[in-house]
Structure formats: structure tokens, C-alpha cells
Amino acid sequence: MKIFKEFKEFAVKGNMIDMAVGIIIGMAFGKIVSSLVNDVIMPPIGMLIGGVDFTDLKVLLKAAGTDEAGNAIEAVTLNYGTFIQTAIDFLIVALVVFMMVKAINSLKKKEEAAPAPPPAPTKEEQLLTEIRDLLKK
Asked: Which of 45, 55, 50, 47 lies closest to 77 in space, CA to CA?
């Protein structure tokens, strides 16, 4: 029973929940970026270079065929087009993360630059101020 209690304490810690939320949002963001690259960015680029779909770019290393037993052997290819597309995915994600960090840092700088208002006097300080003012009279 002690192990379940320890696991419960571990699982409901704030950091664990924050990390889980970050991972889930990151996965969703990855899907958005993949769709952006595959469906929005790559088609115009492919059209500009002659109607090429980057996922179709590959080098044939060994042709498909059959072995002595009549089993089909798949072709061996070097899929550099998929690599190009994945690299563009990465660059877009890196750019967006960089822009987000830059925006957050600029907000922190503005927050640090703004002087904090002086704290309100405590009740004790207010009472002492009133006493001082009465003594002056």
C-alpha cells in the first residue's frame, strides 16, 4: 500500500502535470507543423522545381525482384526527399520555438524594467504616522 501512496504523490506533483501538458501540446503542435509543411509549404516548392513531390525523391540502390524461392524482395531506396521534408519540419518548429522564447524574454524584460510600486504602509506604520502628526501639533 505504501508504494501506491508514493506513486500517487509522485503523479499529482505540479511538475509532473505540467510536463504531461507540455508533451501533449508538443505532440499536437508537431502535427500542425507537419501539416503546414506537407500541405502548405512543400506543394508550391515542388511546383516551382517542376511538379516534384519531395516524398517521391529517392535513389534506387537495389531494384525489386524475387529470390530463388519466388518470394518478393522489396526495392532498397535512399529516401532523401523524406529527409528534406523532415528537415524543413524541424526548421519551422525551431523557428517558432525561438520566436516564442524571444517574445517571452521581451515580456520578462518589460516586467523587470517597470518599477514595483512601494508597498502600502502597515497598520502599525499608519498608527505611528498618526501619533507623529499629533505630537507635531
From this structure: 55
For the segment 103-108, the average pLDDT, to the nearest whole number, is 85
Report whether pLDDT(3) > 70: yes
Nearest to 29 by CA among 95, 81, 80, 85: 95
Which residue reads 502597515 in cell numbers?
Answer: 122
Angstrom distances, CA of residue 43 to CA of 32, 72, 103: 16, 33, 30
Q: How far apart are the C-alpha atoms of 92 and 39, rounded to whole Å?
A: 14
β-strand partners of 78: 59
* Residue 70 pLDDT grade (very low, low, confident, very high; cuts 50, 70, 90): confident
| List of domains in the chain | 2-113 (1.10.1200.120)
